[in-house]
Each structure stands twice: as structure tokens, then as C-alpha cells.
Amino acid sequence: MTVVEFFGCSFLAFGPPLAMFSLTIAHDPIRIIILIAASFFWLVSLLFSSTVWFTVYPLRDKIAFGLVCSVFIQEAFRYLMYKLLRKTERGLQEVTDIVHISDYKHILSYVCGLGFGIISGAFSLVNILADSVGPATVGLKAGSNIFIVISAAQSLCMILLHTFWSVIFFNACDLKNYYHIGYVVLSHLFVSCITLLNGQELFAVSLTASYIVMLATCVIAFRVVGGNLASFKRFVTCK
């Protein structure tokens, strides 16, 4: 049962992102490089967050403090990734087949967001998945027996959110739309903070709220890239 749970939760968390990577990124070396670079930026943000947490000794045992700092540092590095992409557009133009790379900015922001999300999901779930293999069974005598499934679902939500957030954030930086920038930062802070309820086993509350925010963010990102009801109908009907 432990091995079945391991594979089930792994595919739940990383199945959709893997499909997104395979269908939209794997065929383009430039996109792969950008995705790896975005993942590296997230790792550096994690290093900075850990440094802040370790340095502020009086608040080291306060999870909320580390969480809030991590959110703001991640968003700062998202902005740095945005600036890096915009600075290297001319170089990317010379090594890619895209005629006008400025017309594909939403694709690049999507790739960056997916890179942020995949590495974030991997770090948040890898230890839990390792424990799920056994020999013990989580929730058999103590704790919740759905903890691993909830963690996988939450990781999937965060991966998708990071993807949508980057699309919105990069476009907002281009247009100087501070409302969208504020939405990205505050929604990231909200979703991260509401996971603290999992410590009280209020999984339904935290997961429902997270997915509501994810759906709202998806709609905003869809509108940002020029989507509308007509294009959505064509997508659903495969026309």
C-alpha cells in the first residue's frame, strides 16, 4: 500500500506539470534552459530565506515568520528573473527561431513560472514521498491518514499557481500594472499562510481556499494573455 500511495501521490502532484513540460517545453532547448534558470532562481531564493530564518534567532521557532519572509523573497527573485529575461531578449533573439521574441513574452513567463513551480513542488513534497514508501504507514496510529494525499494536492496547486503568477507578474511589470503585481504578492502570501491551518488538520479549509485562488488566478492569467470566452470555447471543442 505504501508503494501504491507513493506513485499515486507522485502522479497527482507532478503528472500535470510533467504533461505541460512534455507538450510545451521539451521540444525547445531555449525553453528548457529558461526553465532550469528559473528553477535555479527559486533555489537561490530558498537559500536567502533560510539565511534570514537562521539569522533572526528570536523568531526562529515561528513558522509564520519564515513563511512570510520566504514569500517576499520568492517574489523578489521572480522580479529578478523578469529583469534578466528582458535584458537577454536580444541574445535570445539570435539563438532562437522565433522571428520576434517580443511577441512570445507570455510563453517565456509561462516557462519561468513552471520552473518556479516544479522546483517548489519538488522541495515541498520530496521528503513526504520518501517517508510514504515505508516501512511505516502514515496515519495508521497517529496523525491523519490523508496527509500525504493532501500534501500532493497542495503541491500541484502551488505548481500551477506559480505558473499563473509568473504570467500575470511579468505582464504587469511590462505594463506597470501595480494592481496585478499586488494581487500576485498578496495571493501568494494568502495561499502560503492558509496552509498553516494544516497543523490543526483543517485540510478541507486550506485546500479549498487554495484551489479557489488558483482558479481565480488561472482566469486572470488567461485574460492577460488575450484569452476570451470565444477562444475558450474553441479550446474546449478542439476547433
Fold and architecture overview:
It is globular, with a radius of gyration of 19 Å. 78% of the residues lie in helices and 0% in strands. The protein has one domain. The protein has nine helices and no strands. Helix 2 (29-55) packs antiparallel against helix 3. With 239 residues, the protein is mostly helical. It has helices spanning 2-24, 29-55, 63-87, 89-95, 105-132, 147-175, 178-194, 203-224, 229-236.
Features:
notch signaling pathway, 78% helix, mainly alpha, 9 helices, Aph-1, 0% strand, 239 residues
Quick gist of this model?
The protein is built from 9 helices and no strands. It is mainly alpha-helical. The longest helix has 29 residues, at 147-175.
Low-confidence stretches: none
Overall strand count: 0
Largest sheet, described in full? none
Distance between the termini: 42 Å
Helical region count? Answer: 9
What is the approximate shape?
globular
User: Which structural class best describes the helix and strand composition?
Assistant: mainly alpha
The ordered H/E elements are HHHHHHHHH
What percentage of residues falls in helices of 4 or more residues?
over 70%
Average of pLDDT: 85
Rg (C-alpha, Å):
19 Å
Structural domains: how many: 1
Percent strand equals under 5%
Please render the helix and strand layout as text.
Elements: H1 2-24, H2 29-55, H3 63-87, H4 89-95, H5 105-132, H6 147-175, H7 178-194, H8 203-224, H9 229-236
Helix pairs in contact: 1-5, 1-6, 2-3, 2-5, 3-5, 3-7, 5-6, 6-7, 6-8, 7-8
